[in-house]
Amino acid sequence: MVLGTTGSGYERNDVVAKFLRNLRKREWRLGLGALILALGTTLAAFGYYYFASPTPFTVAVGPRDGVEARLMGAFAESLVEHKKDVRLTLVPFDDVRQSAEALQQKKVDLAIVRPDVFLPDNGLTLSILREEAVLVFAPSANKIKDISDLAKKRLGVVTHHEADLPVLTTILAHYDLDPPNITLVSLGTNEVEAAFTAKTVDALAFVAAPVGQEAARLVQIMLKVSNRNVTVVPVKEVEALALKTPALTSMTVPAGSLSGRPELPDDDLKTVGVSYRLMARSGLDRSPISKITQYLFQMRSRIARATISVNLMKAPDNDTITSAALPNHPGAVDYFNREQETFMDRYGDWLWLVLFAGGGVSSALAWIAQFFARKRRELVDEVLDRLTCILSEARQAKTAADIDALHAELDNLVTHAIRYARRHTTNTRAMSALILAIDSARAAIADRRRDVLGQTTFPGEEGLESSSKMAAVARFAAE
């Protein structure tokens, strides 16, 4: 390798020699250690941030002052209050159509969705926040006991959402009750009593939660105008309607949930329902979604302090949770089926890979250390080889110039030998071999000079024997 003067064979590796020498410097070792420590600290900080910091999600809610917006706001506050590893940021919209469209366009991670209004094709259900039933009432005197009995009748319709009327017309169309076979009369809540008193309507239909305040208000009006003799009209073909329009669901209204005296309905009532759902994008990781679902149901009592409507929340039907017409998110399914992933389930493979990679890195570092040690030995070996060549070339030198050149190269090799001893890049045995080789080469040069020129010494050598020069070198190597 390149170690000495221009033209010698070992000059070509001087860069490697310099690099190896630098690695022996304390400053370089400290710098390399600091770099490794900085990388390790950075990786540790990143790992802590990744595993310990809460996972953020954005939630589209609509309408801005609606029941679901208040529910999700209370849920977000509860997550912060209990220091959970999930955080929700609410993005308000004017209605549920806009919130569902935001999910469709991937502007948010979760959204409040009413499927019969707009169903995003990338939305998967986490929970049903509440369901509203299609309820049809008629005074018993009008003898309306089935939806088909509404033919040629006047049906008063109270709507609380622009999508309520399309739901009713879908049901009526199933029974061939399109105008003019039926007359629809739009009413406000405060107009219902007057309409029945004036006999301008024969029955009343609306969409509301059976245990909600709006349903209770309208039921009381119907009891009043019918002298407490009212009929709740069932929707018998509810399964067929749900199959034809998956955005609609089959819903059972428990007996007595509308009124206790008289009992309304007097038996469990089957009807069509619409749902307000919390949905997530299909591409989201199942593990954090499973945690959101878990926290939502676990914190129900805390959320109920802010909005009682959370008590209407329920999980999708467990019998059809994996084959529902409105698909459920795998993370929510994991929670409902008690199959949530543990830390090892999620990261176990990565941990094993890190362990295996750590073994490989250790082997690579050991190989690099061995490689550098071999390179250092090769440097000393090349010096020894060159000294052996000088010993031979000195015996064959013809002119003083040749002898001078060999002497100058020998001095350069002595310099390198001292540098190796100072850097502790060689051992005592190797340095002993170097001393012997240098002494032999110097003696050969001196003998040849005496033969050629009759000189016993060379200018600069007076008073300094080679053995005394190398004694210091031997001490360096022995330390």
Beta-strand portion reads 15-25%
Give the overall form: rod-shaped
Unreliable stretches: 1-12, 456-479
Task: Kindly report how far apart the N and C termini lie.
Answer: 26 Å
- The Rg value, from CA coordinates, equals 46 Å
Overall pLDDT: 81
- Along the chain, the helix and strand elements come as HHEHEHEEEHEHEHEHEEEEHHHHHHH
Note the main sheet.
Answer: 10 strands, mixed
Secondary structure: number of strands: 12
Number of continuous helical runs:
15
Describe the structure.
By secondary structure, the chain is of the alpha/beta class. A hairpin with a 2-residue loop joins β10 and β11. Helix content is 50%, strand content 16%. α9 (286-298) crosses α11 and α13 (400-423) packs antiparallel against α14. Strands 1, 2, 3, 4, 5, 6, 7, 8, 9 and 12 form a ten-stranded mixed beta sheet that branches. Residues 1-12 and 456-479 have low confidence and may be disordered. It contains 15 helices and twelve strands. The protein has helices at residues 14-23, 26-52, 67-81, 96-104, 164-174, 192-197, 213-225, 238-244, 286-298, 300-304, 330-336, 343-396, 400-423, 428-453, 466-478, and strands at 55-61, 86-92, 110-113, 123-139, 154-158, 183-187, 203-208, 230-233, 249-253, 259-260, 263-264, 269-281. The two termini are 26 Å apart.
Notable characteristics:
single chain, 479 residues, alpha/beta, 10-stranded mixed beta sheet, two-stranded antiparallel sheet, 15 helices, 50% helix, disordered C terminus
